[in-house]
UniProtKB/TrEMBL annotation:
Domain AB hydrolase-1, residue spans: 57-290
InterPro entries, sorted: AB_hydrolase_1, AB_hydrolase_fold, Meta-cleavage_hydrolase
Gene3D superfamilies named among the record's database cross-references: alpha/beta hydrolase
Lineage: Eukaryota, Viridiplantae, Streptophyta, Embryophyta, Tracheophyta
Listed name of the protein: AB hydrolase-1 domain-containing protein
Length: 305
């Protein structure tokens, strides 16, 4: 049974959001790659561009681990779509994206997104990545510098180590980060959300159960994605850097990845990188502080040129 009395609130919200996105001109595309991967991507391309030369820059928005592209970036598309062509994919094993490959790392996700851009005829992009999506965005910028023009990292601990989450796990009484990111029941989900959000409103258990059923598919494969993350793993090589201009955006009250991680990344990247901290915000600025997030992104992309 889905939701309360068989009614799924989350599915209802997703259906309405899909209708709204279609009405705003976004198109739903399923791209088949040669490596056995099928990527779903929302695409917005304007016939009335604002930029010089009748060609607007393309903006690739990469979601984190808790949602697909639709649910993660709904608060941003109206503002960002005024000045940019938008590409909003579902990462592999989220939304309608899947693969027959055994590869699971965030580097593989980055390679697939690069192939997706080629299939769509997009030569260069500005990339915005949140949390796990920031890992993917970072590898795209490193591996494909001629494709990624600028980079925005949102609440993504690129410089984390195997012990970065130890204090959080101890606080939650867990031994594995998968217990936090892939909760098994409503009580664990509530605990995870109270850590993820700065001020999480109270919700009844049936909403948490509904969300887990509606958004929690491919659980085994998603656990494999977590196990395969290269960044911060015990056997990873020294972290490379990137040469693009980089903006790091962080919630001041992020408990998933503490604010110190933002400054570690800034020091790692160097002088072409700056940090903006959003006050009274936890790990998910797109949901907690959508206005502040879109203004910060637009200031970096439009006003800083």
């Amino acid at each position: 049974m889905r939701g309360l009395f068989g009614f799924s609130v989350v599915e209802f919200v997703k259906k309405r959001k899909r209708s709204q996105w279609f009405s705003l001109g976004l198109k739903s595309k399923q791209i088949q790659l040669s490596n056995g991967t099928s990527l779903h991507c929302w695409v917005l391309r304007s016939n009335n561009p604002h930029s010089v030369g009748n060609q607007r820059p393309a903006l690739l928005l990469i979601h984190g681990f808790g949602a697909d592209g639709l649910m993660a970036w709904d608060t941003q598309i109206c503002a960002l779509g005024k000045d940019f062509d938008l590409l909003i994919p579902d990462l592999i094993f989220f939304g309608n994206s899947t693969t027959t490959s055994t590869e699971r790392s965030e580097i593989f996700q980055a390679e697939c997104l690069r192939s997706m851009l080629h299939c769509l005829g997009v030569e260069s992009v500005i990339v915005v990545g949140h949390s796990y999506g920031g890992f993917v965005a970072f590898w795209m910028a490193h591996k494909y510098p001629s494709v990624v023009r600028r980079l925005v990292i949102v609440s993504s601990a690129i410089c984390m180590t195997p012990s970065t989450n130890d204090s959080l796990l101890q606080e939650l009484g867990s031994s594995d980060i998968k217990d936090v990111i892939l909760p098994n029941n409503a009580a664990d989900f509530r605990k995870s959300m109270n850590v993820t959000f700065h001020r999480m409103p109270w919700l009844p258990d049936f909403i948490y159960n509904d969300f887990m059923q509606a958004m929690g598919g491919n659980r085994e494969q998603r656990a494999q994605l977590l196990d395969a993350i290269v960044i911060g793993s015990k056997n990873s090589h020294p972290l490379p850097t990137v040469n693009q201009d980089v903006l790091i955006i962080w919630g001041q009250n992020d408990r998933t990845f503490g604010l110190e991680q933002a400054y570690l990344l800034q020091r790692h990247i160097g002088e072409k990188c700056k940090v903006v901290v959003i006050k009274e915000c936890g790990h998910v600025p797109p949901l907690e502080k959508p206005i502040e997030l879109k203004e910060t992104i637009l200031n970096f992309l439009l006003l800083d040129n």
